[in-house]
Amino acid sequence: MSKKSVFTFFVTVLMIAALLAGCAGAGETEEQAATGKVKVFGAFATPIEEPWDGVIHDALLKAKEAGLIEYTYTEDIGYTGDMERVLREVAEQQKPDLIMGDAFVNEEAVRRVAADYPEIAFAFGSELGPVSPNLAVFDNWIHEPAYLCGMLAGGLTQTNTIGVVAAVPIPEVNRLVNAFIAGAKETNPEVTVLVSFINSFFDPATAKEQALAHISAGADVLYAERAGVIEAAAEKGVFVFGNMSDQNEIAPEWVVTGPVWNMTPTVEYVVAQVKAGTFTAMDLKDFSMYALGGATLADFHGNDAKVPAEILEAVKAKEEAIKAGMFRVPIDEAQPGTVN
After folding, report:
1. Contact 92, 84 (CB under 8 A)
2. Lowest mean pLDDT among 32-41, 146-155, 260-269, 313-322
3. How many CA atoms lie within 13 A of 190 on its CB side?
4. pTM for this one?
5. FRET label pair with 128: which of 3, 25, 305, 327, CA 20 to 30 Å apart?
6. CA-CA distance, 51 to 35, in Å (whole number)?
């Protein structure tokens, strides 16, 4: 073989090797290429015991168990400026591929850090919009099953009075409460719905206290938008609807069902994007609704037998209409009154 042929041979081999390496690692960091997993960090303002952050955490744990991601997290970061510090430390020291969590009160901090680390994908629960190139947003769009729960509540009440205890009157909370009220009015136009806010995202003691106040005012069905309400319902023996996840185990006899937020469709989509190098700053809203499996009703665990047959039939029909795109639950984000 001539020197020219040898040179040509080696150049060809090097080009092929480079091409193969590029194909194997396209869109992946060196660590991803080595492990096949996306490195994810969870940043949670509240304890993961709180259902909102707990739902995100559970979906990430599921992805970890499926071998899709490496996952670490910090919980109970709070709202005093610690979120920015934690995110910067993680970005500098751990260098994750993706950071997920909740922003809301920490909106400005999350957005500042995301802007400073464009090589990291950020996907955060937020009431605001996405920011190119690396901040995607999502929210718990479970107003559809909340409406169905309201329909059930309207059919279950014997006193024509229902109580709702919610977090803070912000749009994402208001739309759940308003959907629940609208559903209750559909099956029981005469119902009165009492609403209170605890002005916190996690304060079970205050939530329980307000739930007991609603019961004292005549409510015999409750919507536990926040943790603490179910315990009051069990104590007084009234029906209650959970929120975010299946909470039947807290009070099996009294938790009828509840709106469930399933973050797995969102997590799987975002992780796949990051792994492929195609992450997009977008609003991930659709992945948290009925159509893509992000919203459901919790299992009744046999408590559907306690619901009047005609109400249960109406709810099932409405649920099918929502799934088929034939009925849209109104999105009303105005603050509801204390009595509706």
Report:
1. no
2. 32-41
3. 6
4. 0.84
5. 327
6. 31
Is 18 or 275 the better-scoring residue by pLDDT? 275
**Distance in angstroms (rounded) separating the CA atoms of residues 335 and 321:** 27
pLDDT tens, residue by residue, 97-142: 999 999 999 999 999 999 999 999 999 999 899 999 999 999 999 9
Q: Where are the beta strands (DSSP E) in the chain?
A: 38-43, 69-74, 98-102, 121-125, 135-138, 161-166, 192-197, 221-224, 239-241, 259-261, 295-297
Range of the domain at 119: 35-138+263-288
Q: Which two tokens stand for residue 127?
A: 């009431």
Q: What CATH number did the domain enclosing 191 receive?
A: 3.40.50.2300
- Tens of pLDDT along 195-218? 999 999 999 999 999 999 999 999
Helix (H, G, I), strand (E, B) or coil at 326: coil
Clarify whether residues 126 and 163 are in a common domain: no
> Alpha-carbon distance 121 to 110, whole Å?
12
Length of the chain: 340
| Residue type (1 letter), 69 | I
The answer to whether the CB of 285 falls within 8 A of the CB of 83 is no
- Of the candidates 171, 169, 177, the one whose C-alpha atom is nearest the C-alpha of residue 201 is 169
Q: Sign of torsion, CA 151 160 250 53?
A: positive
Contact 192, 181 (CB under 8 A): no
Integer Rg of the chain from CA:
24
Identify the CA nearest to 267 among candidates 93, 125, 166: 125
| Least confident segment among 25-39, 133-147, 247-261, 324-338 | 25-39
Q: How far apart are CA 15 and CA 18, in angstroms?
A: 5
In a domain, 246, yes or no: yes
According to DSSP, residue 322 is labeled H
Q: Which residues contact 178 (CB under 8 A, 6 or more apart)?
A: 143, 330, 332, 333, 334, 336
DSSP state of 248: G
Instruction: Please check whether residue 24 lies inside any domain of the structure.
Output: no
Q: Do 151 and 180 belong to one domain?
A: yes
Average pLDDT over residues 272-289: 97
